[in-house]
Amino acid sequence: MSPTAVLVSCAELPSGDGDDDAVVPALSSLGFSVSWAPWDSAYDFASADAVILRATWDYASRRPEFLSWCESVPSLFNPAAVVRWNTDKSYLVELLDAGVAVVPTSLVVPGSPASFPSSEFVVKPAVGAGSRGAARFAAGVDASAHVAALHAEGHAALIQPYQSSVDTSGELALVYLGGIYSHAFSKGAMLGSEMDSSGLYLSEELAPASPPADAVALAEDVLDAASALLGILRAELLYARVDLVRGADGKPLLLELELTEPSLGFRQADPSAAVRFASAVRQQLA
Predict the structure, then answer these.
(1) How many CA atoms lie within 13 A of 244 on its CB side?
(2) What positions does the domain ATP-grasp occupy (predicted)?
(3) What is the pTM of this model?
(4) CATH for 91-100+165-269, among 3.30.470.20, 3.40.50.720, 3.20.20.80, 3.90.950.20?
């Protein structure tokens, strides 16, 4: 009997946004019976051999419910403990404390006062996806009202100095499958971009990329540090996307580590990337 793999989405995008289209035949070619299902649907997720989070992009407004569902699924990739840690961006502070080169980040929990950088900066919710709730402010602006609005919604706020390199070179996303580097792609600036028609994510300008050595070295450090904090092996992560920007000194910095439901850029990758993904799924089951 073929092993079953279900790609998990949300009601607004039941079959994802198209980036994973190549994954379905790749999984099928390696013996899987494949289907899509929204995470809050009636699908029997406990019966599947591999439940793979791919487009659950409505989780931010329903995180407690989503985490409860994740913990109910026996064969979830990435696992529920990883999802809980990664869906709260305060993990950036943990990685910063672990010595990783992260964009300077301060966490402001509800009830605490905020202080703002002397340069241009960004305020974003600790729980959020697709840059929803993120705002960019000029140097010297008091963004307390935006912080208070995030607090009123029940979110802690992250404050980061804006990295101007995003305006010229965007972000670099490095994708790892089963803990091993697979491919990379570039992303244009998202702040100020138009929201997709689904209302769940901002449209991005993406292109294939060849990461320079210093970016790969940082991405490796990020995965090692995150795995240590989670108490797992890198190979236990079915997928990871490491989003980097260049700091004022030209060195790479971690902007975000995506371990829950990131687009993996298969449309910007070589055709064998989807097969590498399918092979990594088999590795997890083994």
Answers:
(1) 29
(2) 92-286
(3) 0.92
(4) 3.30.470.20
